[in-house]
């Protein structure tokens, strides 16, 4: 609004002056506006005051029309743009004025309301709002920020002001609601008292939230530090274990080279000795062949003198004293040393086989069967995790080992062989993990297997409840002594021996072992237990390695 235009508008109705009058204090008003403020149609009904400066005026005040100001208004309004032009050029201002709340006391020329009186059920312009402050009869009225719906601030039943707050039902109420209405005998407070209390509570809550946020940020930093530490520790352990295996391989490779060298040396020694013996035998054969040839030649001689001369010259007059041909002693080539080498290698293999294969080499990760899961459980897409589906239980409920209906079975079962699997429990305060046996139960819906884990003679499990560990079978419970909290539970089913053993999968410490004599298929079973106040919402997760070296291991 321009400066000139502002001087030509009444401060009460906020519109151009109509029959303007000037008060002795110098402020201008529309005649009807000032009469409405004073609630009078003429003079001599004082006392009067100026709505702008609050100066009291004489009771015999005579209001005279300010013709000069009226002329200025007429000149200005004649030259200003039409209403259509204003709507075209300033649509946002027109839209804004259409939602303006007007004063209910300004009859002839509507004024913009700035306050709402809940006692009068009326919207007030600036002048009438001041009147409520000045007149003693109106001072007790409840005046609030202007609103188009005063009834929303009143009791819908009694049409009275909402001055109280019901502490039991947490709603604003009027006095009649507390005295004779539906909130009778309820504890109620003044609105400002309730606001003070709730603001104090909110401030406390905000401080607690701020503190909790700081704790969460600190926890995130700790988690990030632990993540970095975990990755670094895994890398360090991987390097150290690899180095140890490298050293073991160096020792084994050295031992293998030694044994191969002994076998090679033994082979060389024996082949050289046999070659030497062969040379001796061949020399004897050559000597024998030479004597036979000489003897044959002498036997063909017909001249006696010449025969005697030759036999004498060749020293063949006497019978030949030949050394006997020694038989080959096969025991001289007995590979006893080679057998000794093999025995030593067998001893090494036996010594190593006491530690191999590792139990982890039997590790498998069965998939969960969502068809057997309780409706309140949720199975992950990869079927390796089971969650509590519903919202946390608010009432104080302590899960027991007999809460076995909240279970899910694995798809795979087994009847023979040796099987091992691990379940990650981490910090879950409640869980139930084990094995159950039995035929498929056929009901109205899809077929389901029995899920009464730990409460019959064909199920075996370990239950953890807030730091306590119980071995459960056939409704019998045995408390286990566990020094360190189990983060991963390992289960080994050795059906050849009829044993079902539970381990701390990190330290491979045996927790408990059951004797199992069952001809029916055995199914791994997981029960995450109910969620108590949001503290047991973590999943149970089947541990998985991608390439176990015992590749022949199969599930039944």
Automatic annotation (TrEMBL):
Domain RING-type: 10-54
Name of the molecule in the record: Uncharacterized protein
PROSITE patterns: B302_SPRY, ZF_BBOX, ZF_RING_1, ZF_RING_2
UniProt source species: Dicentrarchus labrax (European seabass)
Top-level lineage group: Eukaryota
InterPro entries membership: B30.2/SPRY (IPR001870), B30.2/SPRY_sf (IPR043136), Butyrophylin_SPRY (IPR003879), ConA-like_dom_sf (IPR013320), E3_ubiq-ligase_TRIM/RNF (IPR051051), PRY (IPR006574), SPRY_dom (IPR003877), TRIM8/14/16/25/29/45/65_CC (IPR058030)
Keyword Lipoprotein on entry: no
Pfam families: PRY (PF13765), SPRY (PF00622), TRIM_CC (PF25600), zf-B_box (PF00643), zf-C3HC4_4 (PF15227)
Gene3D superfamilies tied to this protein: 2.60.120.920, 4.10.830.40, Classic Zinc Finger (3.30.160.60), Zinc/RING finger domain, C3HC4 (zinc finger) (3.30.40.10)
One GO process term, biological-process aspect: innate immune response
GO annotations of cellular component type: cytoplasm
Domain B30.2/SPRY: 346-549
GO molecular function annotations of the record: zinc ion binding
